[in-house]
Design brief:
By secondary structure, this protein is an alpha/beta fold. The chain folds into two domains: about 200 residues, inorganic pyrophosphatase (n-terminal core); about 120 residues, Diaminopimelate Epimerase, Chain A, domain 1. The chain is built from 14 helices and twelve strands. The strands form two sheets. Strands 3-2-1-4-5-6 form a six-stranded parallel sheet, with helices on both faces. α2 links the parallel β1 and β2. α5 crosses α6 and α6 packs antiparallel against α7. The structure holds guanosine-5'-monophosphate (5GP) and manganese (II) ion.
Length: about 325
């Protein structure tokens, strides 16, 4: 394991650096990656952000977005950059399986691997770890990595601050989750002072839907929502046909699960989507209920206590039924 002094020394000279994050990147994944990118380029490093897959259009406003390389479609170029890198930053994930085919390239690269993350149970592939499961977002950790570990708060400029603000805003569900502590709000204040325009970033991320996305939401709420009051659980299941009908793009289904959780008394919300190759589940919970426990145990997934995900190889209908069969096991926690 590398120590902070050695890392600081290494970063004092321009280096070839790759930053990567988990597949289907969300606001925190992109905010952390481009926040760190905008910091590192100020020091003359040669930095490339490589994402395993594409990501939602509502994240494309972030400074540096035009430089991002999407692995699928640019495999050769990306593999060469990974092989040639001196340092690879792995942000917002802690197991190489989360970056799909890129994982093996990263594993076999001679680069120093730096993990900055807030998920449970990290895999042992890194040379330096800045990891805290209590952080509400990886972007929060990027802030303290720069400001505290590297003692370089002055380099948190408007571009860095805007990306990190977006990461924290999205992963904390707009500052609503229990891990949005007073320290997080102090960091947010610093980011606004550094130039992040909070209301504009909110607008760019949340008020940027296509008409189709809103109509899909309408169908979800009127026809796809099932409320199981005896378990304080609400399920929304979206079919392949819905995805086609509303021409769903990456990111269009994000956030719909939160509507199910907004019903009074509901402790667990399950959003299930029938993709072409698998069924994907997104779980959200309130308070102590461990959504990640269900995902880990039954759906080959994981995540945080209040936001977790997983996959199923069963049909959509069988997956819904499986959830209903699992709920009795958690009834005590759900109805207390
Ligand atoms: P989402 O529901 O937005 O896809 O994911 C919520 C959180 O659950 C993510 O931040 C991630 O931590 C976790 N997650 C989602 N899908 C998976 C998965 O397939 N495997 C694992 N290990 N975690 C997941
Ligand atoms: Mn995150």
């Amino acid at each position: 394991m590398l120590d902070t002094a050695s890392l600081t020394e290494l970063l004092a000279q321009p280096q070839k650096i790759v930053i990567t994050t988990h597949h289907k990147p969300d606001g925190d994944a992109m905010g952390s990656s481009l926040g760190l990118y905008n910091y590192l380029i100020q020091q003359g490093h040669h930095v490339k952000v490589i994402t395993p897959t594409d990501y939602p259009e509502f994240l494309s406003w972030m400074p540096g977005n035009g430089e991002v390389i999407i692995y699928t479609g640019n495999v050769k170029e990306a593999n060469a950059l990974i092989a040639d890198a001196k340092i690879i930053f792995c942000l917002d994930f802690n197991a190489l399986g989360r970056i799909n085919q890129m994982g093996e390239q990263v594993r076999k690269s001679d680069a120093l691997k730096i993990m900055i993350d807030h998920h449970l149970e990290p895999e042992d592939f890194d040379d330096y770890r800045y990891w805290d499961i209590n952080a509400c977002a990886t972007a929060q950790l990027i802030y303290s990595f720069i400001a505290v570990e590297l003692n370089n708060k002055k380099l948190i400029n408007k571009d860095v601050a805007s990306c990190l603000y977006a990461g924290i805003m999205t992963d904390s569900a707009s500052f609503s989750l229990p891990n949005t502590t007073s320290s997080v709000h102090r960091i947010i204040a610093d980011l606004i002072d550094a130039g992040a325009v909070n209301y504009r970033i909110y607008d760019l991320v949340y008020n940027n839907s296509s008409e189709n996305r809103l109509r899909l939401l309408g169908t979800c709420l009127s026809d796809r929502l099932e409320v199981l009051y005896e378990y304080n659980t609400a399920i929304i299941a979206v079919t392949k046909h819905d995805l086609e009908k509303f021409e769903v793009n990456t990111g269009d289904t994000e956030g719909i699960v939160n509507y199910a959780l907004s019903i009074a008394g509901i402790k667990l919300a399950v959003f299930i989507v029938e993709r072409t190759d698998m069924v994907k589940l997104s779980l959200r919970s309130k308070g102590e209920f461990p959504a990640n426990d269900i995902c880990k145990k039954y759906f080959n997934g994981g995540g945080h206590r209040n936001a977790a995900g997983g996959i199923s190889s069963a049909s959509l209908e069988d997956t819904i039924n499986q959830i209903k069969l699992i709920l009795p096991e958690y009834k005590k926690l759900l109805i207390q």
